[in-house]
Amino acid sequence: MFLDSKKEGANQVSGYLNLLANTIDNFTHGLAVAASFLVSKKIGLLTTMAILLHEIPHEVGDFAILLRAGFDRWSAAKLQLSTALGGLLGACFAICTQSPKGVEETVAWILPFTSGGFLYIALVNVLPDLLEEDDPWRSLQQVLLLCSGITVMALLSLCVE
């Protein structure tokens, strides 16, 4: 259906699994963005910026995975775009699950849930690579880039009102 006939095989399963994982990832992003806007405009803008900075390279990588799995460019682009609907569903879910007692009860479970998920993924994917790195210069570069990301978000939090 969406696959290039010359590249069909075992790789196509990885493409479909990637689409599923990307949809779930985008759902949690939608939860985080909506819940953070429920807290305040500033928190919402900072969360949106952080997710955008994360998503650009992430989506390019996912597109490459789909191409490698045998999808043609147009189908891969359409399917990548369709996974973004997960973000909209997550945002709608966060808004629709607001408690009659107030926003605090909704945010009290959504933000820790999404933050914990983001931290888990970062630690599971990033930390092992840092620990396995033999070259101290490369490790230092990675730690400096991590610190620069934290610095950018801190500066944005000071600028955004």
From TrEMBL:
Pfam families: Zip. One of its GO terms (cellular component) is Golgi membrane. One of its GO terms (molecular function) is zinc ion transmembrane transporter activity. Keywords: Ion transport, Membrane, Transmembrane, Transmembrane helix, Transport, Zinc, Zinc transport. InterPro entries: ZIP. The keyword DNA-binding does not apply. It is a multi-pass membrane protein. It comes from the Eukaryota. It catalyses: Zn(2+)(in) = Zn(2+)(out). The chain crosses the membrane at residues 108-127, 139-160. Functions as a zinc transporter transporting Zn(2+) from the Golgi apparatus to the cytosol and thus influences the zinc level at least in areas of the cytosol. May regulate beige adipocyte differentiation. Belongs to the ZIP transporter (TC 2.A.5) family. This is Zinc transporter ZIP13. It comes from Ictidomys tridecemlineatus. The gene is SLC39A13.
